[in-house]
Write a structure and sequence with these properties.
Layout (H helix, E strand, L loop, with lengths): L17 H9 L4 E5 L34 H16 L5 E5 L9 H12 L4 E8 L6 H11 L3 E9 L3 H6 L6 H13 L3 E8 L6 H14 L3 E6 L2 E2 L3 H7 L8 H14 L5 E4 L9 E3 L6 H15 L11
Helix pairs in contact: 3-4, 7-9, 9-10
C-alpha cells in the first residue's frame, strides 16, 4: 500500500470520494433525487447573454421528470431510490436543471421548503451560476443552511478567460470569484464544477484550473470530461472538425495530476460524467464509467500518488 497519508479506506480510493464523506459525516450512504424547477438561465433568456453555453442542452435535466410539480418529481424519485436501496433510504433534493437561484426569492423559498418537508429528504443541493447570487438570495441560502445540510453547486468549467469567452459562459472568472466569495463568507458548503477537454485547452491549462480550485478551497468539486451533445453549438463545432476531444487515457492522466493538486479535504463529488446517452455524440468512451473509474484508480496506483500530494496552501 502507498504511503498515502490520506487513506480513504472505506472506498479503497486515493481520493476523497463523496461516499466516503457521507459515511464519515453521517454514517450512511446518501442518494440524490433530481428536480427540475422549470427555470431558465440569464445566459439563455437574454438578460446576460443568448444561446447558453455551447455545450448546454437546455440545462442538465435529462435525469428529471419533465414538467411535473416538485412533489410529483420527488415521489417518483423516492420510488426509484427506495426500490433499489430500501424504504428508509435518505436522499438529497437536487435542484439540477438550469439556474436554480434565477427566480424571485419567495418562489424559491416555497420550492426549497416544499422539498425539505418531503419524507426521506436529508438535505438540499442547488445548482446555479455565480452571477445569480444576489444578497437576498444569499440570505435565503443562509436561512436554509441553518436548517438542513445544504450544498450550492457553481459552474466554473475553467479559470481561463479565453475559454470562458469561447464557451459563451457570459460570466467572467472575476465575476465567478465574487459570487463564490459570497457563499464562502456565508459559510455555505460549495461544490465547483470543472470540465476537462474544453476546446483548445492544453493539459497545462487544465492543471492551472485545478490549481485555481485548490486556491479557492471549496468543500467539494465535480470533475468531468466535456460531452458533445446532439443539438448544441459544440456539436456543430465538433462535426466541422474545429477541435479535438481527449482520449480516455489522456483524460485519466489529467485527472490523476489534478487530484494531486487539490486539497486533501476537498470532496470529489464526481470524477467522470453522465452524458445523456440518447444524445451523446462523443466521446463514446465516457459512457463506460466503470472503465474510466477503474482507469483512474490504476493510474494513481501506478504513479503512487494521491489527492493532495502536491497541494500547497498559498
Amino acid at each position: 500500500m502507498s504511503s498515502n497519508p490520506f487513506k480513504y479506506t472505506s472506498d479503497n480510493k486515493r481520493y476523497n470520494t463523496l461516499n466516503y464523506y457521507n459515511q464519515q459525516t453521517f454514517g450512511k450512504k446518501i442518494y440524490k433525487a433530481v428536480i427540475d424547477l422549470g427555470l431558465t438561465c440569464p445566459n439563455i433568456d437574454g438578460s446576460n447573454g443568448k444561446g447558453g453555453c455551447i455545450f448546454c442542452d437546455s440545462g442538465s435535466g435529462y435525469f428529471t421528470h419533465g414538467e411535473a410539480d416538485i412533489l410529483t418529481q420527488l415521489t417518483l424519485e423516492k420510488d426509484r431510490i427506495c426500490s433499489k436501496y430500501g424504504d428508509d433510504a435518505e436522499f438529497i433534493a437536487y435542484f439540477q436543471a438550469n439556474t436554480n437561484t434565477y427566480a424571485p426569492v419567495e418562489f424559491l423559498r416555497k420550492a426549497y421548503y416544499t422539498a425539505l418537508g418531503f419524507s426521506n429528504v436529508f438535505g438540499i443541493s442547488i445548482g446555479t451560476r455565480a452571477d445569480c447570487l444576489s444578497d437576498d438570495i444569499v440570505s435565503l441560502l443562509c436561512e436554509l443552511n441553518n436548517r438542513t445540510h445544504l450544498t450550492v453547486e457553481l459552474g466554473m468549467q475553467s479559470c481561463h478567460e479565453k475559454t470562458i469567452s469561447l464557451i459563451n459562459r457570459c460570466c467572467t472568472h472575476e465575476e465567478f470569484k465574487r459570487g463564490y466569495s459570497k457563499l464562502k463568507s456565508a459559510g455555505i458548503r460549495t461544490c465547483l464544477h470543472v470540465i476537462n477537454g474544453l476546446p483548445f485547452e492544453s493539459e497545462s491549462e487544465m492543471l492551472e484550473t485545478a490549481n485555481e480550485v485548490a486556491w479557492l478551497r471549496p468543500e467539494a468539486v465535480k470533475l468531468q470530461m466535456l460531452h458533445v451533445i446532439r443539438g448544441t453549438k459544440l456539436a456543430e463545432m465538433y462535426s466541422n472538425g474545429e477541435f479535438r476531444l481527449l482520449e480516455r487515457d489522456e483524460y485519466i492522466d489529467i485527472i490523476a495530476h489534478q487530484l494531486e493538486l487539490l486539497p486533501p479535504e476537498t470532496v470529489i463529488e464526481r470524477i467522470t460524467g453522465d452524458g445523456d446517452k440518447r444524445k451523446l455524440i462523443a466521446p463514446m468512451w465516457s459512457a463506460d464509467k466503470i472503465a474510466v473509474l477503474g482507469g483512474i484508480d490504476k493510474r494513481l496506483a501506478e504513479l503512487d500518488t494521491w489527492q493532495g500530494r502536491l497541494y500547497s496552501d498559498r
